[in-house]
Amino acid sequence: MFVVSLTYKKPIAEVELHLAAHIAYLEQYYAAGTFIASGRKVPRTGGIILAKAATRTALELILQQDPFAIADVAEFEVIEFVPTKTAAGLEQLIEKI
After folding, report:
1. How far is the CA of 75 from the CAs of 43, 51, 67, in angstroms?
2. What is the model's pLDDT at position 81?
């Protein structure tokens, strides 16, 4: 599993020009089962995506398709982790090792 931290590189006004396309991109990967949760950072300096992908390389290829990446308005940090414990109702996120 991966935590993706997006940090805006451009002013919010420029980021918002690509927001509708970014939301459509998110929906595509929610439908595919890759993205699990996402949202804005507080304060609004970027966002977070919780993702499941077969490999880091596979996820990085997906992230390259993000309109924020294409427009170069955000940079992406990918953190991989192995969930071994969850809150009730989220047990399907636990990875067997």
Report:
1. 16, 17, 12
2. 92
